[in-house]
């Protein structure tokens, strides 16, 4: 593509377009080939008409692609689409969801800074904080996710960032994002929300007052368990810091994976609606089973934050966790008795998955840390896919029958 190229009518006019239209068309800039689908640019570098043009692009004096470690047309297409869907000024794609979290902290925090993290976060996030961030002089403290007063009380003069997942993994606990954003503004800190479980189809944290949103695009954005990737979205002043980090450190998203994610975004709302309907039906069914001690799903009226979920989400998500009587042995018997569900720790797939958090996603945490996060030995996490609900119930019934 040349700088003189003007696509004109070939590109879509998206002024005022709705969410689903943006999910299908946003960010695409057609080349002189006039391709209808998004182009896949598998190139490491780019050529210039002259030495002067190369110098201007490398210095930032003029626009243009330089090197695919930090700029690629396919990746840019994905970033611009996510930014519009999350109502952000800019988005930056990364090689994985964990790379998105790492890039956010490394770009916006320094040695001596303090960050607050919800106790209810993914196990690898805790490992990142404990094993690596602390090694480089970043202080980390953990706070109960839904306790607004605890977040406020834990802030220090050097607090730079508050990080949380809402809903949490795997207990579907929620934070009042509006209330936390007020605390963050009062304390002068950044509020970062992992929106992986909801996606922008169900929740837009930036519109609720958050400063930054992060995603593991590996999950629902892809939707079929094919590729690894992550993305961060927020104000341009913050995202430009991430661009600089990716340019130097290199945890960038591959163009192929970006292209796959673009295809996933096209059906995001349709898929999330189907996921959520099935999850609701299964959660209501599990509550009625005598072998089940507790079901964690914000769509249930018995969930302590059911009303909050209704207020800040358009649906309740696709992850249902439940606790069996009998601890780990009961949980393992249940999992091993299933024949349809995939035993894997991934989620966001069209295929439903089942896992035992205490020995997989949160298995590297100390017993004390697991207890603080509410991860008990009898807990099972389901990530509901797109199969027939009747077939999923029949498979879960196998697990229940194995308890007798």
TrEMBL record:
Q: Does the keyword DNA repair apply?
A: no
Per the record, residues carrying N6-(pyridoxal phosphate)lysine are: 219
Pfam families, per database record: Cys_Met_Meta_PP
Q: Give the protein's cofactors.
A: pyridoxal 5'-phosphate
Q: Which family does it belong to?
A: Belongs to the trans-sulfuration enzymes family. MetZ subfamily.
Complex and partners: Homotetramer.
Protein name (record): O-succinylhomoserine sulfhydrylase
Q: State the organism named in the record.
A: Halopseudomonas sabulinigri
Q: By which gene is this protein encoded?
A: metZ
